[in-house]
Amino acid sequence: MTSTISWIDDITMTELERNPYLVYERLRAESPLAYVPVLGSYVASTADICRSIATSPDFEAVITKAGGRTFGHPAVIGVNGPIHDDLRSMVDPALQPQEVDRWIDDLVRPIARRYLSEFEDAGRAELVGGYCEPVSVRALGDLLGLKSVSSDKLREWFHKLSRSFTNAGVDENGEFTNPEGFDEADAAKEEIRSIVDPLIDNWIVNPDDSAISHWLHDGMPDGQTRDRDYIYPTLYVYLLGAMQEPGHAMGSTLVGLFTRPDQLEQVIDEPALIPRAISEGMRWTSPIWSATARISTKDVEIAGVELPEGSVVLLSYGSANHDHTVYDRPSEYDITRPPLPHLAFGAGNHACAGIYFANQVCRIGLEELLETIPNIERDTSSDVEFWGWGFRGPTALHANWEV
């Protein structure tokens, strides 16, 4: 299948990974719902179309082809009906705001302070790898019950899973153009199981308050647990998306604030502005940029495009969050813009389960960083590069300060 506009046929994975904004700006203007051959699916690029499809009864969740190859079945992001209901009943309780408020401060603040203590007296740091990602993965790892797994190993897992999930390029026959791109994630999943299987063996007979233990037991008849093969695909989802999102949201928010020194100063002086800064950071560079999909359950027309039953549509929330019809100057980071809703966490019944958790991890991480190092500045001798079209964030962020 080809698109109806010739330049779309020439889109490459490389340009999407480096900078999807140029392609998606043109898509929004010329073909906001378009078939993109390199992705092997339709792409929705505007806020209105993304939201309409995400909430439409004519579409169900489906995992992308590369996502299915990475996670397996049943992953919570790609199932519907009773299985989706059960998986959400498994993961949702620990992530409800009232529950998160009970333990989030005690969980995240010591982690943030520990990582800050490693570099606060150095006068310089690379903040993505040295702070944002470690705080994010450690917080979720501890919540899941993976305290014995190092933060470096957790980061390694989520990067490998991320590269696999976004290894989406296909040829004219729908075959992956880089099948070897899944190898490192396959190895990571083997390692994950070798570490988590013994923990599951223990949790089956000795349940505790860790999230995975609750996944095994909650809602099950006495003496029964969910099968580990049933929960592993959703665990892989967590080890990618749930670990990636808070860390890269923190990093993107900091990059955005560094582009607006006056706003950075405002946030430092008034920490109550941090949640607003984070919300703008997630809109400006959505961590989960274009990683969710829907499939039409019948022939349907959307935005003038006839979609046959079974059409897969990628919901490009990062593009929707730059929609000029919704946001003024969307490519600029600006905490003073009207607080319009964004789609960084999706919409509909498959909206991200960890919305509140992710925001609180970001909030505490930035509170601790900016209180400890209020004179922080970006090191302008190093450029900031962002990477990714499915998941997106800064690859590194160098900063310095006077000690």
From TrEMBL:
InterPro entries cross-referenced by the UniProt entry: Cyt_P450, Cyt_P450_B, Cyt_P450_CS, Cyt_P450_sf
Keyword Transferase attributed: no
UniProt GO molecular function: heme binding; iron ion binding; monooxygenase activity; oxidoreductase activity, acting on paired donors, with incorporation or reduction of molecular oxygen
SUPFAM superfamilies reported in the protein's UniProt record: Cytochrome P450 (SSF48264)
Statement: the UniProt record of this protein carries the keyword Repeat: no
Pfam short name (any one): p450
Keywords for this protein: Heme, Iron, Metal-binding, Monooxygenase, Oxidoreductase
Similarity annotation: Belongs to the cytochrome P450 family.
Protein name, UniProt field: Putative cytochrome P450
Organism this protein belongs to: Gordonia alkanivorans NBRC 16433
Organism lineage: Bacteria, Bacillati, Actinomycetota, Actinomycetes, Mycobacteriales
